[in-house]
DNA sequence: TTAATACGCAACTTTATGGTTGCCAATTAC
DNA sequence: GTAATTGGCAACCATAAAGTTGCGTATTAA
């Protein structure tokens, strides 16, 4: 399931930070590595994980590659979350009606 | 970060299925194990992972324990997703205005 | 053209994860 | 009271994940 992979890609503190950083616009690998306290290759691995999940994409621009977020993946994840809580909302609504009927 | 843990808890096909199953109401461990093709303990581990992330909770009811989803965690995850795509929407809006100004 | 920058690839280590089995305790059913 | 059901705990195994280092290759700058 693609959704699970997206959630997994977001389910790591480092990658979530990267996503937050990419939120404000594209950035290169070295840029994204700055301040992480880890090696460039470690960050690259995380970015590749995000790319495999469809959460990020990169485009080579001269000698650097610009990474950006893929909002479609975020949208997919959101739909899944909505689906999970929608039914709960329905159940809550049913409960509300049940309680109201009692009064 | 708690959000990352929630995403990680959702970032596994088995656990996402469990969440979908719990969506329709509480269920016991054996119930949740049915049809998974894996052992009861494996499912228990997954549920414990979900519990640690705040995504699920269980309540002992006689000899069985009823598991349920914790909608607050879903809400938190949704907020995080919104925060990630909100800035993107803003950038898209800025782009739209920029294009319109050119015409 | 030489040096520096930005990356990619591959090997390796350590630790976490997903799964198993075996056994024991508590609760319900007969 | 004895069985069967439901779960928890612990040990164990195999694989994946997160990180490192070393080295090679483009691209830009001096």
Question: Could you please describe the fold and organization of this structure?
Answer:
- Chain A is mainly alpha-helical and 103 residues long.
- The first copy, chain A, contains five helices and two strands; from the N terminus they run H-H-H-H-E-E-H.
- A two-stranded antiparallel ribbon of chain A has the order 1-2.
- The interface between A and B is medium-sized, with 34 and 34 residues.
- Chain A binds a DNA duplex (30 and 30 nucleotides) through helix 4.
Summarize the structure.
2 copies of one chain form a homodimer. Chain A is mainly alpha-helical and 103 residues long. Chain A has 5 helices and 2 strands.
- Give the structural class of chain A: mainly alpha
Number of helices of chain A: 5
Beta-strand residue percentage of chain A: 5-15%
Query: In what order do the strands lie side by side in the largest sheet of chain A?
Result: 1-2
Distance between the termini of chain A: 45 Å
Order of helices and strands of chain A: HHHHEEH
List unreliable stretches of 5+ residues of chain A: none
Main beta-sheet annotation of chain A: 2 strands, antiparallel
Give the helix proportion of chain A (percent range): 55-70%
Write down the overall mean pLDDT of chain A: 90
Largest interface (CB < 8 Å): A-B, 34 and 34 residues
**Number of E-type strands of chain A:** 2
Radius of gyration of chain A: 19 Å
- Net shape of chain A: elongated
The protein's oligomeric status is: homodimer
Distinctive features:
two-stranded antiparallel ribbon, 103 residues, 68% helix, 2 strands, homodimer, elongated, mainly alpha, 12% strand, DNA-binding
